[in-house]
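Contributing new complexes? Match this layout with FE2/S2 (inorganic) cluster.
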Amino acid sequence: MSGRADLYRSVVLEHGKRPRNVGALGGATHAAEGDNPLCGDALRVEVERRGDVLVALAFAGEGCILATASASLMTEILRGARVAEARRLAVAMEAFCAEGRGDADALGPLAGFADVYRHPARVACALLPWRTLARALDD
Ligand code: FES
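Output block (do not edit by hand):
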């Protein structure tokens, strides 16, 4: 999937430079703060959940371009998703980014994080939003 891999890498880069859903949600029902102990960066993730559906997500805080891109894509992809789907994707991203395991084709643009597992210092960056989201959903 090299053509697609390049495309998804460029999508990740673009989200890092021009992140979506930055700020606070007026109607947040769940929220959590997370930090990356390796660098001290921290993000807050907010979710508005109606029943079983995540109707809106937003994030704010300090993070490198990889953490920012990951948060931006996460908040876009999960808008309108069910909670179970969000949890499933968070687990899939953990395996994909930390260990290089999983079906890249099933991850869509998140496959742009395919090389992260080769750079241990970046794993915590890419997963910061997803780990924070998981805590927000447990909130
Ligand atoms: Fe801090 Fe990536 S260097 S989150």
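Reviewers usually confirm one structural detail per submission. For this one: The longest strand covers residues 53-62.
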